[in-house]
Design a protein that fits this description.
Blueprint: E1 6-10, H1 20-33, E2 37-40, H2 48-54, E3 62-65, E4 68-69, H3 75-88, E5 93-98, H4 102-108, H5 116-136, E6 142-143, E7 148-149, E8 167-172, H6 175-184, E9 187-190, H7 196-213, E10 222-225, E11 228-231, H8 235-253, H9 259-264, H10 270-279, H11 292-298, E12 299-302, H12 304-315, E13 321-323, H13 330-340
Parallel strand pairs: 1-2, 1-13, 2-3, 3-5, 4-5, 5-8, 8-9, 9-10, 10-13, 11-12
Antiparallel strand pairs: 6-7
Helix pairs in contact: 3-5, 5-6, 6-7, 12-13
Length: 343
């Protein structure tokens, strides 16, 4: 059944100006435009610092990480970060977490890797054990295979707990991560490298099974999709956007963990081919391997109004939240928001 979609906007994403004055100005503009949430991502910058700014420079728009890398931190430091932003924003924060992949965790962050599904499950279990202590007064006594938290004194227990614990949503691609999200999280962030066919025929049927096994309902579980969008008001703008998306698709399609999505369409042989091109340093050639059929399967392509109509037509019965590009004028964005919300 079609639903009114919540529409979020990224802030401080790669390619955008990254200074405090501009971030604050842009947050105010996006809140005034009517977006439902501001999203930050952990790419070249910390995702929490901009949101800390936004707690005092916005009034009602929700604040979300999409995503923060969980396994580069530990549950105690993450619990404190999420608590502070949620308390400062008066309950507007949702903690969106992702595992990242092993090379980044071990080689970039220098942190241990035990396998994404089981480690993410323990990480979020530990978060809630810490919050059970802070918000409900329970003794802190979490012992897992990877994380152990057993000490909490009054001096280190936050007192500003009126707004409670943040919601936690989790990025997931494969079946083990989907099951983990269904078991322990408040929602799932579907990777942008996902097609309508894969979402409809593979991911969501499994998610429904996993939620049922956990005694949970789809109605209480949130699905966010930050899909690829190539949009322009002129042919020149649109072509430039399409080439950018092709390059991103080529990069993601080279990753073994995402091959299952390609397999849904019979494109699985492309993954090792692209991986070999990366080993050869042929990064700029990846986009040329993405066919028109593949581009339109993964991305929504067209002028702004058409993009909003396509997103609503393709996804409004499947998901709860989308992420919309924000570089168009206020009147264009307003029209897109109305379409996506079914107004």
């Amino acid at each position: 059944m079609a639903r009114a979609l919540k529409v979020d906007a990224g802030i401080g994403f790669p390619g955008e100006p990254y200074d405090t004055e501009r971030l604050v100005q842009r947050a105010g503009e996006l809140e005034a435009a009517g977006f439902d949430a501001l999203l930050t991502a952990e790419v070249a910058h910390d995702p929490f610092l901009p949101l800390a700014l936004m707690t005092h420079h916005t009034a009602k728009i929700a604040l979300r990480t999409s995503i923060a890398v969980a396994l580069s931190r530990n549950p105690m430091t993450m619990a404190a970060l999420a608590h502070d932003i949620n308390a400062w924003s008066r309950g507007r924060f949702t903690l969106g977490l992702g595992s990242q992949i092993k090379p980044h965790i071990t080689k970039r962050f220098g942190m241990p890797w035990f396998g994404p599904a089981k480690q993410m499950r323990e990480f979020i279990e530990a978060l809630h054990a810490i919050w059970d202590c802070w918000y409900d007064g329970k003794p802190l006594d979490y012992q897992g295979e990877m994380y152990s938290h057993k000490l909490m004194t009054p001096e280190f227990t936050p007192a500003n707990t009126a707004y409670g614990r943040p919601k936690v949503v989790m990025a997931a691609v494969g079946p083990l991560m989907i099951k983990t999200a269904a078991t322990i999280a408040d929602g799932i962030i579907v990777h942008a490298f996902c097609t309508e066919k894969h979402l409809r025929e593979v991911m969501l049927p499994q998610l429904e099974i996993d939620l049922t096994e956990c005694g949970r309902s789809r109605q209480s579980f949130e699905i966010q999709l930050p899909m690829f969008i190539a949009s322009g008001r002129t042919e020149e703008e649109l072509e430039k956007e399409k080439q950018t998306v092709r390059a991103r698709l080529g990069f993601y399609a080279s990753t073994p963990a995402y091959k299952t999505v390609l397999d849904t369409h019979g494109w699985g042989d492309l993954q090792p081919q692209l991986a070999q091109m990366i080993k050869q340093g042929r990064w700029s050639d990846l986009g040329a391997e993405v066919s028109d059929e593949m581009l339109h399967a993964f991305a929504v392509v067209g002028e702004p109004k058409s993009v909003a109509e396509q997103v609503r037509s393709r996804y409004s019965d499947l998901i709860d939240r989308v992420v919309l590009p924000t570089h168009f004028s206020a009147d264009v964005l307003s029209e897109q928001l109305q379409i996506l919300r079914g107004a």
